[in-house]
Amino acid sequence: MSVTTESGRDRARFTAAVLGPDTAPVPTPIGIRVARGVVVGVTSYMLCLATARGEERFLFERVTTFWRGGEVGSEDLRVGDDAVVRCSRDGRLVAERVWVQLARATGVIVDRQGDAVVIDPGHGRQRRSVVLPYRTSGRIAVRHPRLVPGHVFDAVGVWRDGEVWAARPATTQPPYPLRAAPHRPPVRTYTNTLNGIATWYDPSWGRSTHLDPRALATGAAYPALDRESHTPGCDARTPCVPLPQLSVGARLSLRNDCTRETGVLDVLGCAASDSWLCDLCPTCGGQGAGRVACLTLASFVAFGGSPEEGCFNATVTVATGEG
Amino acid sequence: MPAELMQTVEAAREVQLPLLAALLALGAVAKLTPRSSGSGLAVLVPERLRIPSTVAVGLLEAVLAGGLLVASGLLGEGTRALAAAVFAGSTAVLLLVRRRAPEAGCGCFGGLSREPVGWRTLTRAGLLSAAALATLGLAPTGGSVLTSFTWTHAAVLGTELLVLAALSPELRILATRILRREPCELRRHPAGRARRRLHRSEVWRTNRPTLLSSEPEDQWRHGCWRFLRHDGLRHGRRVDVVFAVRSGGNRNTAVRAVVLDRESQDVLASYGVVSTRPLPGPPRKLPAPRRAARQEAGLRAGAEAERTLHEAVENRSGDPWKDPEAGRPV
Lengths: 323, 330
Fold this sequence. Notes:
The structure holds two protein chains of two kinds.
Chain A: H1 6-19, E1 34-42, E2 46-51, E3 54-59, E4 65-67, E5 71-72, E6 82-87, E7 95-100, E8 102-113, E9 116-120, E10 128-131, H2 134-143, E11 152-160, E12 163-169, E13 193-201, E14 220-222, E15 251-256, E16 262-270, H3 272-276, E17 291-296, H4 297-302, E18 311-317
Parallel strand pairs in A: 4-7, 10-12, 13-17, 14-16
Antiparallel strand pairs in A: 1-2, 1-6, 2-3, 4-5, 6-7, 8-9, 8-11, 9-10, 11-12, 13-18, 14-17, 15-16, 15-18
Chain B: H1 3-32, H2 50-70, H3 73-100, H4 119-134, H5 142-147, H6 151-166, H7 170-179, H8 191-199, H9 202-207, E1 218-222, E2 225-234, E3 237-246, E4 255-261, E5 267-271, H10 289-314
Antiparallel strand pairs in B: 1-2, 2-3, 3-4, 4-5
Helix pairs in contact in B: 1-2, 1-4, 1-6, 2-3, 3-4
């Protein structure tokens, strides 16, 4: 399912007409391995989800794993939960991994109230309150030692009562506040294939995922969005990866360096908070620092990423029609 | 001590006043610009005091710069002593910064001083402190030194500027920022500039009658290219006219356009695209007559030689060649 606007699709068509078909490759559909919806029934051997396609059932096998702020069993799934399912390669019926109530908070800390911090995601989105429960606060504090306004925060957790309950950190916080972050040194030459890390965001914020078309949207938010062709509110900085300037509707090829899955993604919006961070991804020992794209949750799972880890090493290619 | 040497020493002392004032003013401007806190003294103070401390140091430097230029008498002496103390104090602060945060810059010139504090920065602060001390007891102000500037002053100032340049890591960063232009894919490309370039182009003039409005309906960016889509009418059919304007590069080939039918989405016309196929070369210049004659003679001689060789090969007996009809040797 795609939430690319008509304008975005037209832009890709027009770009291809002027600069050649390589500049706007056909986006890869999400495939049948990923499903998302609301849990309507769960037993020890089967999960029943209400999705946009109707009611879907997924069987559990011995290897099926469940995540809800940590590794849990099938008995911890409740009716009404938002669930993301990755099916096994053999068939759509068998669930390989199920994530429940998955949430992520990326942004700059604007306030601290007791054991909660308020996060500004940075591109006109609503501020979110992130609770740091005692159980996980130690783990969060190891990689986020400065929980004070002005510093960057990125953690994966679960939705509970409209708040994000942080479960594990998704990055190592830079030691300086956001406004003192160093500039990227000037780059002399441009290469259209760039290494970095890909992260994820949830465009539907975990609400009504069986009705909202954004819940299974394919695409990515992009950290180097052109300012003048975008609505105001994208307060992105120059990202530390020398990414070319693009607009909503552009297409980029992405490769998961850990699983070697490849595909083409639509640029859906601004990834302001991802342009602020210049971090590494320890998932499979990659060397590329800096965030190249922020995939939608469905695309991230379809590319073989583990949302609880927050990132994977990625190679992004943007055909700019030069040469 | 000879009089000339005394004069040079005096000029060297005097020239420190405008030099220190200029350096302090530059430092103040750099510190008062946004995003300059996060290095130097700011590293040593708590988070909430970082911006106030940077602004306070910037203001102090601005006051000192003004004082060195205009203040005379007791006030002038006080300003010079304070400047010397500030430079000496900054040397101590830099030593502390180096110990506490080895990767932090000195922040002397705001965002430009991001290189870690090294011996060059420390030496510079020490030298400037000494220079401020040397100005104690001088009668003229910085402003009056500037009005009565001599060649001796200029020579001392030039030498000192060279020494300071060697001790300043900021110059390299400044040169990098000014000289290194990022590739067009990464640069910001203002829409206004792209539109001016479009309106000056032949492609725009050719397509202008097709357009329904000179304002674009949509615009977007793809690498070096900025796209502008206009509504148009061509032979009674609604069309989309898409212009692409390149940032940088050759001005003559920087604008392209395609006209697409809105219903069928077919490309009806394309403008400004340079063919990638090799074009036939320009006609060659004819050689000069004398050279042409020589070349032709050479060709003829070659043909004659080939003919005689051919005949020799065919006539292996070595008898003189006879005309088969007349029976006489040729």
